[in-house]
Specification:
The protein is α/β, with parallel strands linked by helices and 358 residues long. The chain has twelve helices and 15 strands. The longest helix is centred in the first third of the chain and has 35 residues, at 3-37.
């Protein structure tokens, strides 16, 4: 075939590809409408991961670069998402919080999600339970400060499921009105936790500055931008939203400052590879009960990634145990372990099986 013939063949292939894309988009729209009628979650992260996994395998079989093809398919998924009704996502706010940053990583497609901040973790759980939001994003653990107890308690109290997990790097920044220089700062404002995580920077650079506390880092940024000679410690998103200038980036004392966030909804991830599962259980109040409960995982060769205890509020000095382990609840070995666990505990609640969002 000569050059012109080859080009005509490419043109014909491109036409067919676009026609197939249009067909895929129309099917995605119909799926979205069907899910809304049945009151199902619009986003199916498990299904998306399954599609991308299949695409990767097929690319390898055909000798194509799997990473490049997966990138193309991510854009195709974004295109299909864009024609469905936007999902409503609740996050711990106000606007510009680190939880909003995490929420936008869960739903990166422009225009696909509507984000709304809530003043407390309990409020965002309520928003999802009552249908104000399709999903909620809540912090569960910080690598420096530890677990978020309110999230743990609400996972036990409510019927919501964990359907995704994300680890977000917390990068704290010094933010002020554009043009304000560090040597002119007289007041520093932020959330107490953020201030505590920047003690070394404050002692070294802002030692004579007055420290004030705010209800959140986002609120601190808003106040700083409305005040004279005032700076705040907050997120890059807050600086962008409220028109602040980042005077110094990454002022936190510890660079490995990460927060885990859970994506909460009504359906957890379908049975696919590479999942984790979270559960909560309680044991009889007698010697060796916890040891016997946890031994079922060791016997089945299941790796535990976290264990945490929380007091049972109605029964002083008795505890709930939260456990994360590798594997999906529908994996045969996990099913066997959970059945054995039920025999050694007072109750077991599965909080969800999920995959980490890259």
């Amino acid at each position: 075939m000569n050059l012109e013939e080859l080009r005509r063949e490419i043109d014909e292939l491109d036409k067919r590809i676009v026609e197939l894309l249009a067909r895929r988009v129309s099917i995605a729209k119909a799926i979205g409408e069907a899910k809304r009628k049945e009151k199902l979650c619009i986003v199916d992260l498990g299904r998306e991961w399954e599609v991308l996994s299949n695409v990767r395998i097929e690319s390898l079989r055909l000798g194509l670069n799997p990473d490049a093809v997966v990138d193309v398919y991510r854009r195709i998924i974004d295109l299909c998402r864009s024609i469905q009704n936007p999902v409503k996502v609740a996050f711990l706010g106000p606007r510009g919080s680190f939880t909003e940053e995490a929420a936008r990583k869960f739903f990166p497609s422009e225009g696909y999600a509507e984000f709304k901040g809530y003043p407390s973790i309990r409020d965002l759980f309520r928003a999802v339970e009552e249908g104000e939001a399709d999903y909620g994003v809540a912090p569960i653990e910080n690598s420096i400060e530890g677990s978020v107890n309110e999230t743990l308690d609400l996972l036990f109290e409510t019927k919501l499921k964990i359907c995704g997990e994300l680890e977000h790097r917390v990068r704290l920044n010094l933010i002020a009105k554009p043009g304000l220089r560090i040597e002119h700062i007289k007041v520093l404002i932020s959330h107490p936790q953020a201030i505590n995580q920047c003690r070394s920077f404050i002692a070294r650079v802002l030692r004579d500055v007055e420290i004030r506390e705010a209800a959140s880092t986002s609120q601190a940024v808003k106040i700083a931008l409305e005040s004279e000679y005032t700076a705040a410690i907050g997120s890059e998103l807050a600086a962008k939203l409220y028109g602040g200038e980042i005077i110094a980036k990454g002022v936190e004392d510890y660079r490995n400052n990460y927060t885990r966030f859970f994506l909460l909804g009504w359906e957890d991830t379908p049975h696919i590879e590479g999942c984790k599962t979270s559960i909560v259980f309680s044991t009889p109040h007698k010697p060796g009960a916890l040891y016997k409960a946890l031994s079922v995982f060791a016997e089945k060769g299941i790796n535990l990634t976290k264990i945490e205890s929380r007091p049972i509020k109605e029964r002083p000095w008795e505890y709930l145990f939260y456990v994360d382990f590798e594997g999906h609840r529908e994996d045969e070995v996990c099913k066997q372990a959970l059945e054995c666990l039920k025999e050694k505990t007072l109750f077991v609640k599965i909080l969800g099986s999920y995959r980490r969002v890259a």
